[in-house]
What does this fold into?
Amino acid sequence: MENENIEPLRKIIHVDMDAFYASVEQRDNPELRGKPVAVGGLERGVVAAASYEARKYGIRSAMPSVTARRKCPELIFVKPRFDAYKAVSKQIRDIFEDYTELVEPLSLDEAYLDVTHNHKAIASATLIAQEIRARIKLATGLTASAGVSYNKFLAKMASDYRKPDGLYVITPRMGPEFVETLMVGRFHGIGPATEEKMNRLGILTGADLKAQDLAFLQKHFGVSGDYYYNIARGIDHRRVQPDRVRKSVGAENTFFQDIFSLEAARAALSPIVDKVWRYCDQHGTRGRTVTLKVKYTDFQQITRSHTAAAIVLNKGELARLSGSLLESVFPIAKGIRLLGVTLSSLGGSQAQAEPQQLSLAI
It folds into this structure.
C-alpha cells in the first residue's frame, strides 16, 4: 500500500540551560548575582559564557576578553570550573533519562529528547517539558528554556524563542509559517558567513529562502542546499541520536604572552597534544586527520591539516604530525596567542533515509 512506510510525526523537546556556566557561578557565589559575569580567560582568553546582565552590554561567548572588558568595564571574570558544570550536567541528564532513553546531548547544557514514546506514558510533550524544567529548577536551582515541536530544527528554534526561563511550542500547523517570518540569521545551522551570502542573494527571511527552488540552493550552497530547502518549509527528518559517533577530539590553549619563535611554539604545543591523546587513550579513540589551529595576536585565525595514510596509533605520531604542521606556518610576521590540535576522521554514521511523516498532536 502507498502509506506502508508513513509514520507519525515525532515529539521532540530541545532543552537549553540559560547562561549555563555563568548561572552556575552566580548560584554558587551570591556576590555575583545580579552582576555582569563572564566565565573565561581573563587577560588573554575569550569569553566562554556570559550572564544575562553581561549580555545587555553586547557581550557574548567567543568574544575576546579585551573586547568584552571594553564594552563593560565592570565585567567580572571568573575562571571556568568544568568539574562543577559536569556535575550539574549529570543531574540534568538523569532527569532527562527518567522520561526517555532517546537523549542526544549537544553539550553540557543542551540536549534533544524524543518523547514520542516515553517511560511515563505522558501523551503531551509540552507537559513533559514543563515537568523537566520544574525538576531542573528544584534539583539545581538553575533555569532552563525548552522548545517543543515535531522535529529537531523547530524544537531548537522554539527553545530560543522565549529565553531565558521560557517554554515555546511549535505545532505542525504553525511550523511553516513560523519559519517564514524569521530572519535567516536566526536559523540554527546558518552562521554569519552563510547569512551574509544569503543576504547578497536577496534572501533575508525564511519566506525569501522558501521562494528559492532546490536547484538554486544547491548551486549556491552545495550539499547544504538540501538542508536549507527543507528547513525553509519546516521539514527536518533527522532523528534524535542518543549514541552519536564523535567525529573529532581537540584541545587548545591561549597564552598569557604571544609566541614568536618556533622553539617556544613547539614547547607550547606539547601539552596540547598530551591532552588530545589522553582523551584518545581513555576512550579508545583513534583518527587519521590532524588539524593545527593558530590564532595570531590580531585574532586572525588559520588552520593547517594533514590526513595520514594510516590511523595515528600513538602520541609520538600525533606529536610529529602536529609539529610538522606547526613548522609550515613559520616564519611568522606576528605573534601567536593560541594554538590548538584536533584529531578527526574518527569514524561516523551515515545518515539514514527517513520515511514520510503524518501529523500527530504535540
